[in-house]
Amino acid sequence: MSSSLSSSALAVERAPRKPPLLRVATPGDPTAWAVAHRDALRATVRENGVVLVRGLGLRDAAAVGAVFRGLAGTGLMAERESFAPRQALGGGVYSSTKWPANQQMCMHHELSYTLQFPGTMMFACLTAPAQGGATAVVDSPTVLDALPRPLADRFAREGWMLTRTYGEEIGADWTEAFGTTDRAAVEQYCRANGIEFSWQPDGGLRTRQRRSAIVRHPVTGQWCWFNQIAFLNQWTLADDVREYLVELYGEDGLPFNTRFGNGEPIGKDIVDLINGINEANTAREAWRPGDLLLVDNIRTAHGRDAYTGPREVLVGMADPVDLADCAPTTGMPR
Question: Which end of the chain is more exposed for a tag (fewer CB within 10 A), N or C?
Fold first, then answer.
């Protein structure tokens, strides 16, 4: 049974394995309501790491964009280095990442492989799927505490490495990921962001970047497991998909893969361990049309359950945070 507790200036409902839930009477103007309650909502997210707002009645992309921008304060962020295509809907609003509906998206922190990432993720549901499809969340300090200490210590020392192959056939190509067709601009971006790169004979691009796996939250001071180590690893792919891609492109040519910071492979046992800890601590609530989910992207990882039926969830990214402000142990440009 849930109980209503005061969270900052807003009363939220809490229940085991559920994100904190705030029910509101359907306002005449969702944007005006969001702006009026912006500070209280942000305080609620800071306290809980996440909050699901139910009752706003968001019905289209224009209304969602207005609410996102009203809550962002400093404006919405443009995505760079995307790992899979998503549709830009204008004004900093995006579709969800294109990912097979029958496959789970494992827990991850959005753009945690970049030097500047969103501090806040915003999700809004326009169409709820027939079954599944929740945007699940997990508390990152809890995950860090549950990891075996020797493994956590190794990631603290070495960080993690993301390897990518951008091509036209699978994943996002480099023009989509970097938002330009200018090779020189891509090279300049890579050098400025600590990314090793090499152009391939077929016109594709391969990159390697090393980042911190554990960071300190710049506001709360909490140490957080912050990365995409399990999600972007080959062992998280469905077996038949992984085998096909490895046979076709080789491990070095996969669209994305992760390694320890020193370049050594991360085995299936470690990926399964991380995913198991995430699942043991996951909170989820089925989407309803009009729902708004606000997530502290550093403290809280998010994923997406497999689903059936149409699903439309829009995304906004706000409150840019520099890795340099999160006590990084590795990954900064030299």
Answer: C
Residue 7, both tokens: 């969270």
Report the interhelical angle of 61-72 vs 38-48 (nearest 10°): 80
Q: Report how far apart, in Å, the C-alpha atoms of 185 and of each of 124, 189, 191 are.
A: 33, 6, 10
Q: Is the pTM of this model over 0.85?
A: yes
Half-sphere exposure of 9 (CA within 13 A, CB side): 8
Residue 86 in any domain: the answer is: yes
227 contacts 160 by C-beta, under 8 angstroms? yes
Asked if 226 and 309 sit in the same domain, the reply is no
- Of 275, 300, 329, which one is at a domain's C-terminal end? 275
Tokens, residue 71: 């809550």
Q: Which of 329, 334, 333 is nearest to 160 (CA)?
A: 329
290: region left, alpha or beta (phi > 0 left; psi from -120 to 50 alpha):
left
Per-residue pLDDT of 37-94, as tens digits, reads 999 999 999 999 999 999 999 999 999 999 999 999 789 999 888 877 788 999 999 9
Phi-psi region of 211 (alpha: psi -120 to 50; beta: other; left: phi over 0): beta
Tell me the CB-side half-sphere exposure of residue 52, using CA atoms within 13 A: 23
Number of domains in the chain: 2
